Amino acid sequence: MTPEPFRITQAVFTELPVRGGSNWYFLELSNSDGVTGLAEFSYGESSITVSRAIAQMAEELQEEEIVSESDIPAMVGLTPGFLQSDRILATAITAIRNAVLDAQAQIAEVPLYRLLGGGMTASVELYGNINRSMLRDDSGDSDRSSASFAAVAERAVEEGFQNIKCAPFDECRAPFGGSGLPDETKAGLDRIAAVKLAIGDGVNLFVDCHSRFDLESALALEPELAARGVAWYEEPVSYRTHRNDLATIRNAATMDVAGAEDAYGLDIFQSLIKEGVTDVVMPDVKYCGGAGESVMIGNALEAISPGSVSMHSPSGPVSMLASAHATAAFKGTRPLEHAVWEVDWRATVLQPAEHIQDGRLLIPDRPGIGATLNQDLISDNGRRWSATQ
C-alpha cells in the first residue's frame, strides 16, 4: 500500500512522570489538516536532548512532502552508519519516522500493520518482563529479594503469560576479582531458581544480563543458567563493544542468545544473525528506525532464520502498541516484550485504553496505531510543549 504524502506543520512533546524518577516521552506530529501521528521517544536522562533534536529536524522537514518515512534520514542528511553510532539522533529520527507512519495510516484509514503489509490480526503474544515492577518507586523503596522475584513471576503466569523475563544480576559488574564463576552471581542465581520454581517447567524463563559480564564469566555462567531451566541468555556482553566475545558465547551456549536492543537499521541486525553473533535480535521501535524499519528487519531475518526477531519494548504503551503492529506485519513468531506492573495506571495513558488479556496485547481495530494520548491524564500529571517553546 503506497502511503499519501505527509507535511509536518507542528510538533508537540509530552513528558509523563512514571516511577522513581523515570518518565515516558511522546511526540505528536500534525499536518495542516489536523491529522496527528503519535510516537514515543523515551530515552532516560537523554530524552530532553532527543526532543531538541526532533524539534530541529521537524523544522527542517516542514518544507518537505514526506512520501516514504524511510526517506526521512536522507532528507535531513543522516546515514544509517552515522545513526548507528549516535543514539540521540537515532532515537530522534526514529520518533519522527514512527509519528509520520501513524499519521499516514490514519490518512489511508487502515491500521498501521495493514499499511506495513500485514494481513488481518487481532492480537500479539507478549512476554512479561518483571524487572521494572521491582525497581525503586518514588519513595525510594525496592524489594529485589528472591521471594519478590518469584511472587511477581507467579502473578504474571496467573494472568496468562507463558514467557517471563527477569534481570537478576544487580550485584555483578565486570571485571571480577577471580577466575571462573564470580561469587557476585550467587544472589542472581538464587533469584532465577526462585522464579523457575514459581512458574514451573511449562513456562519459558528469559534472563537479561544487561552486559554485566565479560567473556570468561559469561561462559562460566551459561551452564548455571541452563541447569536452572533458562531458555534465553540476553546480552551477557555488549554486541557493540564485545561482538566477537558474544559470538563465542553464542557458539558455546545451549540456549538462545539474544541482544542488540539499541541498534539502528536493518544492516546491523542482519549482520548479527548472518555472522552467528546472536540467535535472536531485539529491535526496539524507539531506536531501530521505527515500525517500518522493524518490518524490514523482521521480513529479512525471519526468511533466513525463523524465530530470530523479538521486539524489545520495556517502555510505555505507545511504543508497545507500535511494536505490536510491526510484529503483526512481519508475522513474528517470538513474543513481544511488556514491562508488567510498572505503574497501575499504565493502560489509561491511551484512549482507547491498552488492553492486555491472557498474555496478549489486543490491537485496536482503528486507523494508525489505533490510539491517542489521554489528554485529561496528561493535563493532570504530565507536561506538554511545542517545538517552538
Describe, in plain words, how this protein is organized in 3D.
The protein is built from 13 helices and 15 strands. With 389 residues, the protein is an alpha/beta fold. The protein has two domains: 113 residues, 2-Layer Sandwich (Enolase-like, domain 1), CATH 3.30.390.10; 259 residues, TIM Barrel, CATH 3.20.20. Strands 4, 5, 6, 7, 8, 9, 10, 12 and 13 form a nine-stranded mixed sheet that branches. The protein has a four-stranded antiparallel sheet with strand order 3-2-1-15. A two-stranded antiparallel ribbon has the order 11-14. Helix 6 links the parallel strand 4 and strand 5. Helix 6 runs parallel beside helix 7 and helix 10 packs parallel to helix 11.
SSE arrangement:
Blueprint: E1 10-19, E2 22-30, E3 36-40, H1 47-61, H2 72-75, H3 80-85, H4 87-108, H5 112-115, E4 123-129, H6 146-158, E5 163-166, H7 186-199, E6 204-208, H8 215-227, E7 232-234, H9 243-252, E8 256-259, H10 266-274, E9 280-281, H11 291-304, H12 317-329, E10 336-339, E11 350-351, E12 356-357, E13 360-362, E14 372-373, H13 375-381, E15 383-386
Helix pairs in contact: 1-4, 6-7, 8-9, 10-11, 11-12
Decide which structural class fits the backbone.
Answer: alpha/beta
Question: What is the H-and-E element order?
Answer: EEEHHHHHEHEHEHEHEHEHHEEEEEHE
CATH superfamily of the largest domain: Enolase-like C-terminal domain
CATH class of the largest domain: Alpha Beta
CATH-assigned fold name of the largest domain: TIM Barrel
Number of domains: 2
| CATH architecture level-2 label of the largest domain | Alpha-Beta Barrel
- DSSP strand (E) fraction? 15-25%
Average residue pLDDT: 95
Q: What coarse outline follows from CA principal-axis ratios?
A: globular
Distance between the termini: 36 Å
Low-pLDDT residue spans = none
Helix content: 25-40%
Our count of helices gives: 13
**Radius of gyration over all CA atoms, rounded:** 20 Å
Total beta-strand segments: 15
- Mind summarizing the main beta sheet? 9 strands, mixed
